[in-house]
Write a structure and sequence with these properties.
- The complex is a heterodimer of chains A (266) and B (402).
- By secondary structure, chain A is an alpha+beta fold.
- Chain A has two domains: 61 residues; 195 residues, Alpha-Beta Plaits.
- Helices cover 31% and strands 15% of the residues of chain A.
- Chain A is built from seven helices and ten strands.
- In chain A, a hairpin with a 6-residue loop joins strand 2 and strand 3.
- In chain A, helix 2 packs across helix 6.
- With 402 residues, chain B is an all-alpha fold.
- Chain B has a single domain, classed as Formate dehydrogenase/DMSO reductase domain (Formate dehydrogenase/DMSO reductase fold).
- Helix content of chain B is 68%, strand content 3%.
- Chain B has 13 helices and three strands.
- In chain B, helix 3 runs antiparallel to helix 7, helix 8 runs antiparallel to helix 9 and helix 9 packs antiparallel against helix 11.
- The two termini of chain B are 25 Å apart.
- Classes of the chains: A alpha+beta (266), B mainly alpha (402).
- The interface between A and B is large, with 50 and 51 residues.
- Strand 2 of chain A pairs antiparallel with strand 2 of chain B, so a sheet runs across the interface.
């Protein structure tokens, strides 16, 4: 390219001009390259932003309401030792292993057998995240990855969880698990990942669609109907009526975490 | 008191260079171990969903606690005007920074997602004691760096006012820092072994002890290196006295912590576990912390006098550090090994190991990562004293050794 000066002696560009041309060429190349790089980097973000706008427009995500307090009432009198339907349903919904778990494998819900050593009285019940109103895990999380939705569901934001495990130290219910190894084939509703902490989400994605949590549906399908789900804040709901009528217990109520999971007949 | 002069460690022996090389090697191995853990996940460690904090946390907390204690000697001179400690003020500041850096490096590399450090530095939940600690730790670096500046700058150090002011603030900050570290456990209501306000002052007392032990060890080591006694006989006496005081203070807070728990019937099972039938944890407490880490070094410090005092101080410092590691091991691992009480007074079993004493044996990578924290601290100290005049050249009692 000859753009720096006219060909004054008919021998092509003079040497200084050739050097300037080379500089101009490399500068233009650099600018074009930078613009291309910037476009490549920005395009996916812009597309995602546009798509998220479409999703909002479609109205698929209504915000959680603080008027609601989702909770569970578990009747230990109806829960039997041999039934594991709630655990299997949770495992199938979120993709964690429920059979022969090792000490490093996550368990979002487990069946706990309890026996009074003095009387020999015995009962069995499922234990999962208790979705506390004053959740210790939410208090101690340094980044705010552990958080409580307005409707009382306690979740982990896997994008800002740094894997410090302080929430696991703080939870009185041993409700949380740390993902110890690389995961593959995660399910769409379970954005799980190595190095982060996870727990029962009360099936927030199903609740947001107006459905019951998977464990509740499985317990109902098994014919036991030991787990009742509903809005504790709504006096007309079945769960609120039963909590108001019968003597219920919450695990380690003395700690003052105000769990959203109630137990009956324990 | 005569004007204190300071030296760089310019003329060092092959042993010193070798020691620095060894620490560099351990740091490299530790980083490799961290990468291995990060690549494969924590499944390659001894940690589980029951024991969620393992050996790296033991080393990290030990070093962080020691860091604040290492600043003591500087505080004695500038805050409490005890001029005898002035020659050691600079080294004390350097050690404080180095130990904290070592501890934090281990803590960060043991995260599930160490790549998200930036998230931890930019996204805060101000209700979390962990988040407060991020400020306390980074603030400590800045304040101690400023403290070192006012101690070392030729012009600023002419007046004692800046040193007093910055030193006083650093003294306050180190109390806050160790209170924060102790409260990481003290605030936890879930676990019977923790949930106690006394853990904060207990950690402060322990920090005095560990920090002094590190300071004394480095001073004695560098005395050999420089072929000059950096701790005169008068100072040996002072350090002996401080060791006795700090060891007894740690013992006192430990005793009150356990006695308070034992007095409450609901905590007796955890105390019985830790103090009587906890296996490795009971051994770590009685043999590691109490016998090897407190009574034996106390006896050595008290009995070793005269020409043996120097060696006695060195040996005691090593034993106090062994005791410190045992103490933190008992607190962190032992506290998690005892099962959570979901239904107090009941027998509980589940596939998630409810009701069982949790098993833990540290794997090699996590031990290497933990030990590399100590090497990071020593490497920073070694390089620091080589590059800048941190070491005292002559004290009132100094005499060339051998």
């Amino acid at each position: 390219m000859t753009k720096g000066c006219s060909d004054v002696n008919g021998r092509g560009a003079c040497e200084p001009c050739a050097a300037e041309d080379a500089v101009a060429t490399s500068r233009r190349g650099f600018l074009l390259g930078t613009a291309g790089f910037a476009a490549t980097m920005l395009a996916p973000g812009v597309t995602l932003y546009a798509m998220s706008g479409e999703a909002e427009a479609a109205g698929t995500t209504a915000p959680a309401s603080s008027k609601v307090r989702w909770g569970l009432l578990i009747d230990a009198g109806k829960c039997t030792d041999d039934c594991n339907a709630c655990v299997k349903a949770c495992s199938a919904t979120y993709g964690w292993k429920s059979t022969d778990p090792s000490a490093t494998e996550p368990q979002w819900i487990r069946k706990v057998s309890v026996k009074d050593p003095k009387s020999g009285a015995h009962f069995s019940l499922p234990v999962m995240c208790q979705h506390c109103a004053s959740a210790a895990c939410v208090d101690v999380c340094p980044t705010g990855a552990s958080f409580k939705r307005a409707d009382g569901i306690v979740l982990v934001d896997r994008h800002i969880c740094i894997g410090c495990r302080y929430c696991m130290m703080a939870c009185p219910y041993k409700a949380r698990s740390f993902v110890h190894e690389t995961l593959t084939d995660q399910l769409p509703d379970a954005p799980r990942g190595k190095g982060t902490v996870e727990a029962c989400t009360l099936c927030a994605h199903l609740i947001d669609k107006g459905e019951s949590p998977a464990c509740v549906a499985a317990c109902k399908a098994s014919g036991r109907e030991a787990i009742l789900f509903g809005d504790l804040n709504d006096p007309s709901s079945e769960i609120a009526k039963r909590v108001a009528t019968y003597r219920t217990t919450r695990i380690r109520e003395d700690l003052g975490c105000d769990p959203g999971v109630y137990y009956q007949n324990i | 008191m005569a004007k204190v002069e300071f030296n760089r460690c310019a003329d060092h022996s092959v042993f010193f260079t070798g020691l620095l090389g060894l620490h560099a090697l351990v740091v490299a191995v530790g980083l490799g171990a961290a990468f291995y853990m990060e690549h494969h996940g924590h499944v390659v460690t001894g940690m589980t969903n029951q024991i969620v904090w393992g050996a790296p946390h033991v080393f990290a907390v030990f070093l962080i606690v020691a860091a604040s204690g290492a600043l003591n000697v500087a505080s004695f001179s500038s805050v409490f005007n005890r001029l005898a400690y002035k020659p050691y003020g600079r080294l004390s500041g350097l050690l404080a920074i180095a130990l904290l850096a070592g501890g934090l490096a281990v803590l960060v590399l043991d995260l599930g997602r160490p790549d998200r450090l930036l998230v931890a530095m930019t996204t805060y939940n101000f209700k979390s004691i962990f988040a407060w600690n991020i400020y306390l730790y980074t603030g400590f670096f800045a304040i101690v760096a400023a403290y070192l500046f006012v101690m070392m700058d030729r012009n600023v150090s002419r007046s004692s006012l800046p040193t007093k002011a910055v030193g006083g603030f650093a003294f306050f900050w180190r109390f806050a820092l160790t209170t924060g570290t102790g409260s990481i456990f003290g605030f936890l209501i879930a676990r019977d072994a923790y949930s106690a306000a006394i853990m904060a002052p207990m950690f402060i007392a322990s920090s005095f002890l560990y920090g002094l032990a590190f300071t004394v060890l480095v001073l004695l080591m560098m005395s050999r290196e420089a072929r000059a006694e950096m701790i005169g006989s008068e100072m040996i006496g002072k350090f002996r006295g401080l060791f006795i005081l700090f060891a007894l203070a740690t013992l006192y807070f430990t005793a009150v912590h356990h006695l308070t728990k034992i007095y409450q019937s609901s905590y007796r099972p955890v105390e019985a576990f830790l103090l009587l039938d906890g296996g490795i944890y009971t051994a770590a407490f009685w043999i590691g912390q109490i016998v090897i880490g407190t009574l034996l070094p106390l006896a050595i410090v008290i009995l070793a006098s005269g020409r043996r005092a120097w060696l006695g101080l060195e040996l005691a410092a090593v034993l106090f550090l062994v005791g410190g590691l045992s103490q933190i091991y008992t607190i962190i691992i032992g506290g998690q090994a005892f099962p959570l009480r979901l239904f107090p007074g009941m027998e509980v079993t589940s596939s998630f190991f409810d009701g069982q004493v949790n098993q833990y044996s540290p794997s090699l990578p996590e031990l290497l990562l933990g030990v590399s924290g100590i090497s990071i601290a020593m490497l920073i100290t070694g390089i620091g004293i080589k590059l800048l005049p941190f070491l005292p050249r002559g004290t009132a009692n100094a005499a060339p050794a051998r």
